[in-house]
Amino acid sequence: MYEQHIQTAIERTRTMVHRYYCENDVDAVIAQMSEDIIWLGAGEQEYAAGRETVAGIFRQFQGQVPKCHISGEEYQAIPLGPEVCLCTGRMWIATDASTQISLRVHQRITTIYRWVDGAPFCCHIHISNPYSEMVEEDIGFPTAMARASYLYLQEQLAAQTALLQRMSYEDSLTGLYNRNKFNEVLARDWSDSPHLGVACFDLNGLKQVNDHRGHSAGDTLICRAARQLRSVFDGKAYRIGGDEFLVIDDTLDEADFLAAVRAVEDGMEAEHISHSVGVSWRAAPCSISQQPAGGGGRSADVSEQARIL
Question: Is the pTM of this model over 0.70?
Answer without folding.
Answer: no
